[in-house]
Amino acid sequence: MKKRQYHHSSSLQNSSPQEFLSSATKLDLKAKSSKRTLKSLIHSIPSSSPLSSSLLPSLHTFISDSILSFRNPTHSPPSKKPRRSGRKSNKDGEDDLDLHKQQHSAEKLHLLAHVAFLCVSHPKKVFSPLDLLPSVQLLHDNLVFFESDSSLLLEISNLCELYWKENLQGREMLISQSLPFLVSRSLTLKKKVDVHRVYALREAFTLFDFEDESIEDLKMLLIRTVIAPIYLKTEDGRKFLGFIFGLSMQLMKEALAMIKSQIAFGRKSVLEAYGVILFRAWKGIDGVLKEEFEDGFLQGLIEGSIYANSRVLAASVRRVLGGFVSQRITDGVEKLLFRLAEPVIFRSLQVANSNVRLNALHLLLDFFPLEDPDAMKEVKDTLLDKQFFLMERLIMDDCPDVRVIAVEGCFRVLHLFWEIIPSSTITKLLTKLFDDMSHDICNEVRLSTVNGIIYLLGNPQSHEILKVLLPRVGHLILDSALSSRAAVMDLLLLIRDIRSFQFNKVVDLDVLLSTLANDHSQVAQKITRLLIPSYFPSKVSIEEACNRCVTLIKRSPMAGARFCEFAMLEGASPKSLMELVRVLISLVLSNEKLHADQNEVKCLFAVAFNGHAQSSVLNICSAVSPDDVAGLVEECMSLVTNCRGLPKDVEMQAKVRSAHRLLLSCGAFDEMFDSLIRLLQKAAYHCHVKFGIEIPKQRVSPGKRKKCKSSVKISAKRKHVGGRNPTTFEDDYSIAVGIAFQIKDLVVSEDSREAILGSQALELSFLALKVISEVSIEHCISCEYMDTSPVLAYSGLALHMSLQNTSISTNDYGSKKGEGTESSILETVMDQTVDHLLNYTSISNDDGSISTKERSMLNKVKMLTAVLKLIVDSIAMGLLSCIHGRCLNFTSAYLKHIIFALEHQSSEKLQFKEDELKDIFLCLKSSFSYAAKLLNLILCDTSETSPLLQEAFDLVNDMLDLITSIEMHLGSVFAAGLVASAKSWLPDLILALGYLCMLKDTQVASTYITALDCIKAGYPSWPIILAKTEFHEIREANVEEVDDIFSKPEEEEFCVFKKFMETIVSLLKGKFKILDAIGVILLTGSVVGLERKDFGVVLGLLHFVCVKLVGEEDREWNELDMMLDFLPAIYHQIERGIEEQSDQNARQKLCSARMLLDHVWFYHIHETGRFSAI
Fold this sequence. Notes:
Structural class: mainly alpha
Shape: globular
Number of helices: 56
Mean pLDDT: 83
Helix content: 55-70%
């Protein structure tokens, strides 16, 4: 085989150049072996071979012929007559032949280019590069014609690149086409290797005349590299971008303008990359370019960072300037920053605008110390004093935000430049910070003071003076802000580990223990971490550690309890804690005041002096299951039955839950449940007596049930917990509320849920809760003491009964007498529960149904939210069927009721307490999320056979109306909270809003017509609000006097809703089908405005549709068929309105509205012919 290859190689070398190239062009370059063979053939040609002189002219001829064949393919007569085909015309056949010929020529050129590459790279330089240049230049000059063949382009660019790298004669003739190709390739493929190749050829770009118009395409490619991520992320890319600024004044200006436009939107990494690029560009240019760069662009950046209208933008500009700040030790940089910043920065620190002062302060802190490196020492000292004077002034600024940054900046400057700052300045500055700023009225300023001290401690030179000053901030451990108290604890933890400091000299130990006993867990845990080396150390014996902890407990019992609570979290071993528990129990039981006949467990419970301690005792007993717990069982029964006020008493809730666990662990759960049910039945009976509510028939009474065995005995007097009758219905009801709260709680836990669902008394509890829930809903407005706990317990039981297929045996469950059977009730328990609740949850907007009492409104909202939660949970679990329309109607009615109630309370000027208002809003926020989830569930269940219900469209309109109503009556803060919960459901809201209009071209087109009729008949308020905000924006853009605009607050009170709609628009971009549907709804609103003569609404809605909803993405509405179908009617109505209106203001609004539609109207008249001008 090797002999054959050698013979073939030898024969080719001895052949003519034409034969050599003809044989070479038959090779397939896609095969690696062919490339190796060709390389071996050419690189083995010696200088004595005739091919060394004759091959290059022949190569030029071959290349010329192949290029001519590629650009003008001809057909030679086929050797055989082609068969006729009815499927292809002769022209199609000729086109295929041309394409085949062109592909063959491209493959041939690819191989010839590779031959040229191998000739240039010949190890012994046998071939003259100057002789090869005509061939290479021919390939290069025709590069633009080979754009369809990427492999050929790459081969030719490799050849041109080799000429440049080897500094071969004529290389400047091979860059005009190859360089744009390489730049374009790097932008398209986004590979680091291509960026590296472009950077390696950077000097070639200096040969271009960038002022010539013919270079425009290359200039645009270079501008694109400025925003290309691959260039910003790679080191070679950043170096190349820094290089191109020196190519031309115009190119530099355009590149700088491109960077400037990206600053507002760039991420941190992008902005930092621009900083590095700009610094490299500045270093690489000189003369007029440098002057323009410094006095034009950099000066503009510095001024922009000060006068930016948003803090985010100012921070972004400073991040770019950070490329120079980080290199200030480089020669010339510090002088440059001083020259550009000094004229504006000191003046800006003293202006009236607090935003400008804040931005200037940020810049000063970045540039500190701002000084002229060439100035005399006296001048520098004077300038430094000026900067400290301004910082001292700014820490007392009227604006809290300025004070926060000034305090942080002062500590930062002291930390970094302690050595160069005069001691008198340090003392003066620290005294003001410790004495004044630690007492500032703003929480954030006090917090920044503590955080600054923590940062300053990182400089050991500050420790001596801080040792004296730190006690002055000790009072912040009692600060009203949790963040400040937590920061003080971080400070104490830090100085505990510094040998020369003692934390108890900063904050007294008694104050620490008081804080540990009463403060938030976040602070208490940090205090435990601080004290654990002293009061429960791991480096001493367990006995000694326990003694120290007992000392702490005796000194402050509550602090000791909190200390023990967090001890394990802070590293105490379980073994040492168990020993501590043993020691503590021994101490408790040794108390001489305890009666000798009391058992140990009851003793523990008796000496527990608060609810938290009693709960802990019960938890211990339920975990270790002591033998003698009978006494505690009676205590537990008393706890669970005397439960008035349970929903609002957190400490009592913990005790009751502990009692549940103990009763469950010792087998007394059934007796407890019986006692609770007797109290529920008593309350249900009193509901019947007071309100005439019918009590369902019961098959089994609790007295006749089979008794369960218990591991403990309960005293006879405890078995009849209802012996002492409450004197009023309200007392009975409050106990029933506490029991309902317990049942709701019990069905959440798996063990107690199994016990309840397996109880023989389940039916009795369910029916009693049914009656009490009915009363709670019907009379929640008239009786302020009504609570949602019975409704939540009733719905929770129904939900878990349905999941467990648990049935009830009454036939009086929400059906007419004699109609129900046990099996049917088993199948529809959730349907009937929801049906029952909906029957008794009447929602009316008559004036009489709106209570004038704020508390009653809160009750109603809570009840409706509880019912809505049950509906959504049931549908989500697949337990509710066939009443989707009714559920949607209920939710819509609920939201309409809230909107009406908000309007009513606004007109009546009701004064809600802050807590009540927050509770109402939390319910509304939850209800909004439930309504959105209901839409999501129904949308997921939508199909061609089961289209979306009209009620869903109504509901989403009511939800949008609710947002505007809350912003109008409760303010933007509450509206922003509601919008925050709505954002995760935005796709569902948008789809539900536009779905019916999308049905236009389907079999249910009548639904589309109904939807539009619905919009016209009962038009929602949100499009009118939207139109008002847009109209205000139009006026603001056209009115010169700004004060006149802001003198009309009613026209700018919906900023939250405006931002919400802008978010919707951003989601709709590119989704033309749903955008089309939403557009139709808004266009329908403009028709309503025309009919009502409200031309401001018409103009506002059309402005939103044309400028924001559609915008520049599809100005001609080519993808918006439904909107185009709607356009003629509205356009002609506007024209008629203009003719009919005599009022100049109204005519002006209509003319402005028509101008918005003119572009798309005339486009489809003259370009597409869709509309007629007549």
